[in-house]
Amino acid sequence: MQRVVRIGTRESQLALWQANTVKTLIEQQGYQTELVLIKSEGDIDLVTPLYAIGVQGVFTKTLDAALLNDRIDIAVHSMKDVPTQLAKGIAQAAVLPRASYKDLLVLRDTRPFDEQVLSDQNLVVATSSIRRKAQWLHRYPKHRMDDLRGNVNTRLRKLEESDWLGAIFAAAGLERIDLRPENAIELDWMLPAPAQGAIMVVCRADDSFTLDVCRLFNDDTTALCTKIERDFLQTLMGGCSTPISALAEVTDSYIVFKGNVLTPDGLKKASVEDRVPLTMAKDLGIESGNKILQGDGRQIIEAIRNAK
Questions:
Q1: For 52-105, what is each residue's pLDDT tens digit?
Q2: pLDDT, tens digit, 9 for 90 and up, residues 162-201
Q3: In this model, does residue 3 exceed pLDDT 70?
Q4: Which of 41, 149, 151, 163 is the most exposed place for a label (fewest CB within 10 A)?
Q5: What is the arrangement of strands in the sheet containing 103-107, beginning at the earlier edge strand?
Q6: Got the DSSP string for the chain?
Q7: What's the start-to-end Cα distance of the chain, in Å?
Q8: Active-site residue, 283 included
C-alpha cells in the first residue's frame, strides 16, 4: 500500500492555504496526502503580544512535537515564524518560491491618504510585531502603537472596529487568501522580517522518503536568500522580541542584502548593506551580522538583552 504523507498545519485560513499548496505539490508527484489540523500556543493565547510571550517558535513548537511523535510527516510554516535553530531531529525539507516580502499599512477607512496625514501626532497604528513597531516609531516617533493579535481575518475585523489610522500586515498573507484591501499601502521603506513571504516545509531528519519528495519542489533561489536572512538573524542572536529586519535579493548574478536592528522604541538604529557575487554569497548573512556587531549594533543588541 502506498504511503500517505500526513501534512500538519495550523487551523487558520492562511495556514490551510499554505498546507493545501504543499498538498497539491506532493499529489502532483503521485503521492496521497492527508491534512492534520493542530492548534499552536500562538493560536490559543490571542491577548499577550507576541514579543512578550518570550519564546521562539510560538507558532511551530506544537507541530514540531507532532512531527517527533510521528503524528505527522511534514509541517508547513510561514518561514518567518520558524526559529533559526530547528528542533533536534527536524530538518528543512523545502522552501517554496517567495511571494511578496513587503509590509502593508491597511487603513481603517477609505478617507484620502497621503504622507501629510501622517504628520498628525495623535495617530494610532496597530501591529503585533515589535519589528514593525520599531521601524514605524523610527520614522514617526510621535505616533502610538497598539497591539493587534489573532489570525488575518480576526485582525482585519479588529481594525474595522477600532479608532486606529490603520494596522500593518504582511502583504503575502493577505494576498494568498484574497483579502488585500484596495486601500492597502505598501511600506516600501520598511525592511521585512527575515524570510517574510516564504513558506518552509519541515520533516523528521531521518525520514529520507519525505525529504526526497519535498526536494523536488524546493526553490533554490528563495532557499538561498532566506538562508542569508536567517543567518543574519542568528548572528545577532535575535528572536521574536528583537527588532531585526533583513532582505536578500538576487539581481543579475549578485545578491543584494539589506539588514538592520533597532531599539524597540525606534530611537536607535544600526544598518548594513552589501552586494556580492552569487558565488560568494553563502556566508553573507553571517558577515553582515558581524558588521552590525562591530558597529553601533552591538550596543543596541546588548541594551535589548539587558532589558529582558
A1: 434 455 668 899 999 999 999 999 999 998 999 999 999 999 999 999 999 999
A2: 999 999 999 999 999 999 998 899 999 999 999 999 999 9
A3: yes
A4: 163
A5: 144-146, 124-126, 166-170, 103-107, 184-186
A6: -PPEEEEEE-SSHHHHHHHHHHHHHHHTTT-EEEEEE---HHHH--SS-HHHH--TTTTTHHHHHHHHTTS-SEEEEEGGGS-SSPPTTEEEEEEPPP----EEEEESS-----GGGGG-TT-EEE-S-HHHHHHHHHH-TTSEEE---S-HHHHHHHHHTS--SEEEEEHHHHHHTT---TTEEE-TTSPPPTTTT-EEEEEETT-HHHHHHHHTT--HHHHHHHHHHHHHHHHTT--TTS-EEEEEEEETTEEEEEEEEE-TTSS-EEEEEEEEEGGG-TTHHHHHHHHHHHTTHHHHHHHHHHH-
A7: 53
A8: no
Cα 171 from chain centre: 11
Q: Which grid coordinates belong to 33?
A: 496526502
Q: Which three cell numbers stand for residue 153?
A: 481575518
Residue 271's alpha-carbon distances to 101, 201, 254, 289, in angstroms, are: 18, 30, 20, 10
Catalytic residue among 43, 45, 64, 81: 81
Which amino acid would we find at residue 197? G
Could you report the per-residue pLDDT of 9-35, keeping only the tens digit for each?
988 899 999 999 999 999 999 999 999
